[in-house]
Structure formats: C-alpha cells, structure tokens
C-alpha cells in the first residue's frame, strides 16, 4: 500500500506547481497588458471592447488588461511627400510637379474617429489639389508664381483637414517641369530673345557711336570756323590800327618839323638884347600846338574847348579799338614806349647829344614855358607901333 501512494502524491504536487506557474504567468501578462507607457511627443487613443474611452497622455497609464487596444498618434510636425503629378495647364501645356506637405495632428480624437489613416488621406488630397491648381494656371504662371501655387494648395487643404484634426502648416512645390517638347521650344525662344536683344544693343551702340562722332565733327568744325573768324577779325583790326598809327606818326612827324623850326626861331629871338619881342601869330599858334601835341590834352582857347585829338565813337567802333585794347593792351604800351624812346634817340642824334643824357620832353616843355613866362613878365609892355607891327 505504501508503494502505491507515493506516485499519486507526486502527481498532485506536479499539478499544483503547473497551476501556480500558469497563474503567475497570467498575472504577469495582465500586469504587462494593463500598463501603457506613452512617449512625450505622442498621444494614444484607448478602446475597451472596441469602444473609444479616452486619450492616453504621455507617461505611465493603466488600462484594462487583455480587452484594451491603443492607437498611437505622433503630435510632432510630419512630412508627407506628394508623388509627382501630371497636369495640363489652361493653355494646354503638359507639366509635371511634385510637392512636400508639412502637417501636424492637433486633435488626436478627431484624427482617430473622423478619418482612416490621416497621412494617406492628406497625401491623396494634396495630389488632387496640386493637379487642380496647375490646371487652372497658364504655363508661364506655373513656372514663375511658385508662392501663389503653394498658398492656393494650402488654402484648399485647410478646410477638410480641420475636420480631421490635422493642421497643414506649409506646402512647398519642389519642381514644375514642362514636357520635353515645350522645354525645347522655350530654349529656342530664349535663345532667339537673347539674340534679338544682342542685335538691338549692338545697333544702339553703333547708332550712338555714329551720333557721338558726328557731334564731335560738328563741334570741331564750329571751333575751327570760330578760330578762323577770330583770326581774320584780329588780323583786320591789326591792319586798321597799323594804318591809323602810321598816319598819326606821319602827321606827328610833319608837325614836329614845323614846330622844331619855330622853336629854332624862338631861340634866335631870345638871343637878342631887346627885352621886347614881337611874335608873329603863326609862331604863337605853333607854340600852342606844340604844347598840345606833347601833353595830349585839350587846351581851352577863349573859353571854348579845342577839338579833342581822340577818335570819335564811330571811328573807334569801325577799327575795333575798344576790343583790341583789351586783347593787345600790353603790346600797345610797349609799342608806345618804344616809339617815345625812338623819338628821343632821334632828337638826341639830331642835336648831337648822347641819347642817355636826354631829358623828358614834358620837363623840357615845362621849363620852356616857365622861361617864356618869366621873360614876358620881366619885359616892357609893347608899344603901339609894335602892336601895329605885330598885327600886320
């Protein structure tokens, strides 16, 4: 009997150990199923027996074991690639384009309950919207107005995605490529446009160069003509002044010969012993003319002013003395100084004196006038007979 009870006890103990192990395993599995650890960047939707209960927040969450299911939602901004799409523009040009959509889950409950696989839904909606926007624009606009395309796609995506608890943060169209035939035509058009601009610029440059050259030639001819005209005017004025100066010089030399002869006569008269001199009227006129000639001033006679020796305005304008005086004033001064020096040297040679010892003509005339005045004041008054002779 003892031998038969031992196997029965061993079998019972083994069964108990097996049950205990199974219970332990069930408890461990229940604990593991009841604990949900949610990451910081996500939320999870909890269902119990298929019924939505709540959203599990980040951290450790306890849920009913074995009968609960959780669905993960990433709360960060996510990137969706929109596959390349073919579209026909409004001007019947085929184009292909692809884009990138940036989305973010704002309400995980709506994303769980309102849409199945929100990522796929947003991607398909972006594809259709991209084709619609490109089809509503012309080819040039699809190539140039990239920002407008992005804004329109985002606007079209905002309304349906809001119902899903998804916010479209940005849409970026990466490439818009026309067909190869259109690209080839565009390249030819661009090349032709560049050639046209180059030809226009070249023609404008040649035209401007010709205009500048013609203008330069015109200015050169004008300057040359003005120079020749000025040269002719100066030459004519020089000839006129030279002629006038020669005439004045000849007139002066003629008067000087008469005056010199009169002065010699005065010297002979002065050497006499008589203190009373009878002077012919012609000699008195010569003395007045001599003083007027040397001083160059106007002498009053009987209260009336004598005729000036200067040129009148018409003559000065005719020969251009006013203008030429500004241009060759210094030359006139040097010429006048040279003429006076030549006259002094000629007078010295005539009198047999050294030219270096000749006095100034004005000083000589002044001295002669004083001499004559002293003799006239110191002498006797002329008699009536002398006056009659003088009159005769």
From TrEMBL:
Region (Disordered): 348-392
Keyword Membrane: yes
Top-level lineage group: Archaea
Keyword list, A-Z: Membrane, Transmembrane, Transmembrane helix
Family designation: Belongs to the band 7/mec-2 family.
Organism field: Haloterrigena salifodinae
Compositional bias (Acidic residues): 383-392
Primary localization: membrane
Subcellular location: Membrane
Topological relation to the membrane, as annotated: Single-pass membrane protein
Transmembrane stretches, start-end: 15-35
InterPro entries named among the record's database cross-references: Band7/mec-2_domain, Band_7, Band_7/SPFH_dom_sf, Stomatin_HflK_fam
Name of the featured protein: SPFH/Band 7/PHB domain protein
Lineage summary: Archaea, Methanobacteriati, Methanobacteriota, Stenosarchaea group, Halobacteria
């Amino acid at each position: 009997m003892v031998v038969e009870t031992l196997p029965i006890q061993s079998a019972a103990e083994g069964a108990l150990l097996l049950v205990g192990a199974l219970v332990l395993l069930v408890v461990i599995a229940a604990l593991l199923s009841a604990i949900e650890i949610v990451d910081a960047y996500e939320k999870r939707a909890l269902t119990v027996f298929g019924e939505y209960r709540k959203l599990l927040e980040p951290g450790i969450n306890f849920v009913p074991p074995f009968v609960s299911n959780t669905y993960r939602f990433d709360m960060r901004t996510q990137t969706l690639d929109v596959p390349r799409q073919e579209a026909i523009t409004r001007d019947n040009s085929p184009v292909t384009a692809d884009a990138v959509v940036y989305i973010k889950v704002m309400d995980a409950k709506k994303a769980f309950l309102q849409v199945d696989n929100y990522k796929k839904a947003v991607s398909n909606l972006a594809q259709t919207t991209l084709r619609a926007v490109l089809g509503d624009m012309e080819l040039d606009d699809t190539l140039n107005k990239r920002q407008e395309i992005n804004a329109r796609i985002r606007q079209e995506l905002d309304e349906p995605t809001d119902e899903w608890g998804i916010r479209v943060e940005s849409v970026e169209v990466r490439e818009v490529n026309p067909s190869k035939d259109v690209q080839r035509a565009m390249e030819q058009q661009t090349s032709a446009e560049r050639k046209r601009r180059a030809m226009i610029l070249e023609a404008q440059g040649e035209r401007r160069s010709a205009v500048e050259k013609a203008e330069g030639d015109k200015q050169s001819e004008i300057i040359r003509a003005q120079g020749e005209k000025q040269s002719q005017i100066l030459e004519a004025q020089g000839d006129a002044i030279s002629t006038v100066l020669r005439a004045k010089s000849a007139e002066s030399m003629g008067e000087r010969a008469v005056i010199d002869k009169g002065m010699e006569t005065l010297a002979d008269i002065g050497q006499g012993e008589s203190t009373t001199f009878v002077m012919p009227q012609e000699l008195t006129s010569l003395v007045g003319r001599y003083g007027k000639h040397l001083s160059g001033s106007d002498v009053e006679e009987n209260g009336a002013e004598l005729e000036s020796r200067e040129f009148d305005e018409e003559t000065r304008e005719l020969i251009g003395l006013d203008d030429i005086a500004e241009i060759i004033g210094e030359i006139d001064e040097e010429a006048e100084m040279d003429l006076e020096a030549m006259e002094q040297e000629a007078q010295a040679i005539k009198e047999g004196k050294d030219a270096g010892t000749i006095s100034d003509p004005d000083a000589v005339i002044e001295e002669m006038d004083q001499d004559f005045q002293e003799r006239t004041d110191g002498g006797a008054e002329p008699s009536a007979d002398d006056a009659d002779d003088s009159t005769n």
